[in-house]
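User: Okay, second chain of the day. Same drill as before: sequence in, C-alpha cells out.
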Amino acid sequence: MSDSPGARLRALLKRPGCIVAPGVADGLAARLVAMGGFDAVYMTGFGTSITRLGMPDVGLLTATEMIDNASRIAEASNLPVIADADTGYGNPINTRRTIRDYEKAGVAGVHIEDQSWPKRCGHLAGKKVIPTTEMVAKIKAACDARRDPDFVIIARTDAVAAVGGGLDEAIRRAKAYAKAGADMIFPEFPNSDLAMPKRFAEEVHKEFPGLPLYFNYSSNLKWFESGATFDDVAAIGFNMMHVSLAGLRTSMQAMFDYAADLKKRGAVAEIEYEKKLLNHPMGSCNEFAGFPKIKALEEKYLTPDELKKKYQ
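Assistant: Same drill. C-alpha cells below.
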C-alpha cells in the first residue's frame, strides 16, 4: 500500500465526518497545526500572498513562489497538504507542469479554479470564470499529468458569485468537472447560508453519489451568525473543509496587539509577555525551533574536540 501524501489524504477521506484543515501560509504555522493534532493542513493562497508580498490575493504570486511555499509547508508539517494552485497558471499545457511541480513539492493534492486570470480571492467581488470547456480541458490535463494516481485533483468553481453565474451554473460546472475526472469538487459560497451548499451537494450527489466535496469555512458572516458547526457542514454532504485564514488572522491579531503594546509601554510590555510564556507550550523558542535535535546530530557526527569547542 502506498504511503504517498495523496494516499494518506485518500485514507482520511474514507473516515466518517469531515476533515478539517486549518489554513497556513508558512512552515512555522504548519508545524503549529501539526502540534495541535490536526490530520491535514491547507496552504492558503490569500495567506501566502499577504505573508510573502504584503499584498492582496489578486494573482500577483507566480507558480514558482506558490510551489516553493507548498514544499516548505509539507516538509515542516509532515501532514497531507492541500495547496492552492490558483488557475493552474495558464492553459492545459501549463497546468500539466503545475501539477508535476506541486506533486514533486510533496503535497497531497491541489485545487484548481475556473476563474479567468488574473484571479481574485474566492470571497472577493468582481470574479469572472472561463468557459466550462476550457476548465474541463485543464482538469483532464491535470489528471493525466500526475505520476502518483493517488495525488488528489480538486476542481474549484467560483461560478456561484461570478459575473453571469449563480448556483445552477455552479452545479452544472461541478458535474462537468466530475465527468472530466476531478477527485473532489470545491464550490465557493461567499455570503451564503448553508441552504445553498446543501442544495449544491444534493444536486451533485444525485448524479455522482459519494463524490467528495470540499468546503471553505471562512470569511462568511452568515455561517458564523447562524452558528453553523463543522458537523453541520458534514451533515449536508461535504467531506473536507479548510478554515483558510486560521493561521493568518490569529498571527496578525497577536502581532498587532503586541506591537501596539510594545510601542505604548516599552519594556514593561515585553516583561509581562515573557511572564505569560513561562508555562506555555511555545514558551521556549529554541526548543520549538529544534535546537536540541541539532545538538543531538552534532553529537552523532562531530568529533569530541569540535563539540568541546562549541559547548565549552
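The longest strand covers residues 19-24.

User: Thanks, on to the next one.
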